[in-house]
Amino acid sequence: PMGGYLESLSVFGEPKDGARFGELTALHVQQADQRIQLRLGTYGGQKWQLTLDRTPHLFSTTGMSAFQSAGLGVFTLPDPLQTTLNTIVATPPLDTAAFGAALNGAASPTALSVQQRTTTLTWSRNANPGLTYSASYSAENRSGSRPIGTTFYLGSQNELPEPVFHRTRELTASVEYSGDRGAGCLEVRRSRFTNQVPSLTWDNPLQLVDGVGGSSQGRMALDPSNDASDVSLSGAVHVADGAILSGVFSRGRWEQNAPFLPFTINSALAPPALPAPSLGGRIDTSLESLNLDL
């Protein structure tokens, strides 16, 4: 750890009447894996919980790359380096030592880690001993970079630091009932994933300018932004002595409408028209499960 930090903290309190409570717990405060949670509520009544979570994902501490960032999701190579690499490749026999030395000489340290930050707020209320309402909202942000493999030809692979700027928002609401004869739950869930870097563009180390035989740049789509929703009903009931009838029924929908990339980024070619500007994709899901346990 660098600098001051708090290893752990736990504070709990309730008034003399014992009807309400409050609790604060914390772990690794001011560190990359920090977790803070606050709980407030009344016994047998409403409860609130706020959780702040950090999770580090470390891929490497020794990452090096000759590629330089020229914008979000755009990586370039210095022209002198590309000229040197092309000269080495064009001069048989291939001098792999010189090729590696040129790349290593232009490489600089590259961070390869992603920090995940999640904030979750939950609420629940016991309307009566057998009926509970609950809702939760979570906001997850991931930022940093991670290694990703790219290629132009079978003999030209490049590993890049893919920039990660992901946001996930999820809202859930449910009603639960529990009685002497059985229990049931109705739940509604809605989530949205947003990728602020929809594509990756990088220089071709072995080609300085576009040509019919090859492109000076490569481009690929990254994880597309999408939405998902789901409604489910589940429950179980005693139908006879020793017999339990249980079931799950749900309907969901996944949607994705990210714009398509052109067929090529090569300016020396005339790409055909795209069949549509975006996917307009939708998947409807369903689940029906009924079980009788004797």
Characterization of the model:
With 294 residues, the protein is mainly beta. Helices cover 8% and strands 61% of the residues. It contains 2 helices and 17 strands. The strands form 3 sheets. It has an 11-stranded antiparallel beta sheet, with no helix packed on it. Strands 6-7-13-14 form a 4-stranded mixed beta sheet, with no helix packed on it. It has a two-stranded antiparallel ribbon with strand order 5-8. It is elongated, with a radius of gyration of 28 Å. The mean pLDDT is 94.
Output the keywords.
single chain, 294 residues, mainly beta, eleven-stranded antiparallel beta sheet, four-stranded mixed beta sheet, 2 helices, 17 strands
Uncertain regions spanning at least 5 consecutive residues: none
What is the H/E order?
EEEEEEEHHEEEEEEEEEE
Query: Structural class of the helix and strand makeup?
Result: mainly beta
Shape: elongated
Helix coverage percent: under 10%
Strand order of the largest sheet: 1-2-3-4-9-10-11-12-15-16-17
Largest sheet entry: 11 strands, antiparallel
Computed CA radius of gyration, to the nearest angstrom: 28 Å
Query: What is the average of the pLDDT values?
Result: 94
Kindly state the number of beta strands.
17
Distance between the termini: 57 Å
Strand content: over 45%
- Tally the helices: what do you get? 2
